Amino acid sequence: MPSIEIQDSEHHVLRTIPLGGDCLGHGGGPFAMEKGKAARTFRELTTASPQAPVGLTPISPDLPGPGVYFLVSVWPPHVLDPLDPATPEWLRRKRADRFGNLSGNTRSLPVRIEIGPVSDGQ
Fold this sequence. Notes:
- By secondary structure, this protein is mostly beta strands.
- It is built from one helix and seven strands; from the N terminus they run ββββαβββ.
- β1 and β2 form a beta hairpin.
- The chain starts with a strand and ends in a 7-residue tail after the last strand.
């Protein structure tokens, strides 16, 4: 599953937010990104904590406030284990989309965003 890493203007990681769904079974995975194709998702980032019910700790905002930030997509790619050369061709085609082990983390290029202060005239 991909995540979004939020960095400050000096590229220090402030937090990492998982972008995957909440489903952990019953057909919810695995998440796959087709090779050579862009995967798109939408996530609203906040600079204010949402209202929390009395007695519960408020959830911290995604961004501390106005400023310059960098967003980086981070995901652990699957590395396919090679098939045995003796595997028949029909079985090779059938197993062509299987997953192997996870291998490290892959990172996108950073995207720079700038959040300005809220003005009274909005």
